[in-house]
Amino acid sequence: MSTRDHDGDDRPRDQNDDPSDPGSTDHQDPSAEAKVRRPTKHDRALTLLTEHLQLRRSEYGWPYARGGDRLFRFDRAGRNELYAEARHLWRKANEDTPPDERTLRQVVADLQRTAQDAAVDDAAATEWLGEHGVEAPPDESDHEGGLAALLELPGAPVDGDYVIPDPYTVAPDAIWRWRIDGPPERVAWGPVLATKVFTDPDGEELVELAWWHRHRWRIATVPRAIAKSGRMLVRELGNRGLPITEADAKSAERFLAAVETANTDTIQEVTIARALGWQADGTFVAASGHPYEVHGIEHQLQRALEAHREHGSLTGWQTAVKAAQRYPSVAAAIYAGLAAPLLEVLGISSFTLNLAGTSTGGKTTAAQGGLSCWADPDEAGGAITSWSATKTAHQARLALAGNGTPLLFDDTQTAGKPEIVSDMLYQVTQNQGKGRMGEWRSYRWRTILLSTGERSALSFATHQGISARVLDLAGSPFGHSERSGPDAQAFREGVTANYGLAGPAFVERLRSYLGTHGPDKLLARHAELTELHRQDATSIARRRAPLVAVIRLAAELAHYFEIVPFPSLPDTTWRTLFVADDPRDNRAQLALEVIKEYIASFSDRLYESGRTAPPGGWIGTRTEIGDDKNAIALLPQRVREALSNAGYELDAVLQGWREAKALHEHPPGSKQRPVYQIARRIGGSKPRCFAFRGELFSDDE
Question: Is there a single domain that holds both residue 453 and residue 326?
Answer without folding.
Answer: yes
